[in-house]
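Input record (one chain):
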Amino acid sequence: MTVRRVLLVVLLGFASLAQAVVLEGVGHGTIHNGDLEAARAEARQAALRDLALQYEARVSTRDTMENGVVTESHMQVAANARAHNARVVDEYRSGNLLRVTVRAEMSAGQGSCSVGEAARLRKRVAVTGFPLLYPDQARIGRLDDAGEILPQQLQARLRASGRLQVLGATTTRLFDDLLNAPTQQQNDNSLTNVVQVARELGAQFVVTGVIRDLGVADPSAWGTSVLDRMQRGIGAVDQNRRFAVDLMIYDGFSGSPVYQQRFATSAEWNAGPGASDGFGSEGFKQTAYGQSVTSTLDEMADAVTSALACQPFMTRITRVDGNRVTLASGATAGLRPGDQLNLYRSAQYLDSLGGTPELMDTRLSVTLNNVHPDFSNGRMPQFGGQVNIQRDDIAIIW
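The corresponding structure, as predicted from the sequence alone:
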């Protein structure tokens, strides 16, 4: 190794040390029914939170004033830090209370999304059909299959990213009133049947949309007469074509919208009669319009990935047997033995059965010990009957 390379390695080592700080954090856990491992895991998580707050804590306050008097005060504490080489250096038990001391190298996180454990997990997403608002516009170029081919191409891009589990449901249509979508309400006051679709597919999110425009700028330019062909050949008519689609993402557990945006472009539709045989066909791809649409689809896929990056990972509880919990997600989602998920009760009230379920934090977690491809199970500190955890409640990693 040359002197220059040795110097470079030393400098990089100093840079790394300058960014990382070794700290110790203390956490406590309560031993329930003699389950020492669950208490140890709880105490370790608390110690890691203590480390993060020691390294970098952000405190925000919000006060509400009426007539010059503070009537409400809210304070929120958050941390943005990453722990490396964490290890337990001390453990002390006093009765049912366990104290754990963890030592770790702390450094600044790369942003709120990358710090959370959910960033490494693959959320399950269902992509439904994108119906055409004006089907007659698809006649030129035989693009009437756009409502199914477009979401199929979007699925392919999302799968290629490797960040999501993608489920196909391109024949499913969420909206009855395309003109007013997604604001048209159903009889139960919900915007769509997205919750039902998500439940049937086992999806955390549902991606859908409406193709608003496939029209050509000048419909008269596409006649079949000799004069029409001559005018197209010499560029005497406007051959541009529009593309506009509304993209929407819904949370599958509540039906609430997570993201909505319109994507639009236009370009020359320079396909000769019979040259294009469907949306996404080879003839379609060779047109300037097809290439512009392809770029727009890339933007849509990036938008979906970015919109879901900061969302927590959520999965349904499918079975509770004593303190044993089975979840509807497993190794294909990135879950591993030892992972801990926070447990939330999903509650609906008699006066709003069709409304959004309310999630209530039980302040308990399940630690996984068996992970299979599509499901996993683990144990929580207390029996399900004691804390009313049951089937269809939610497990979350933030």
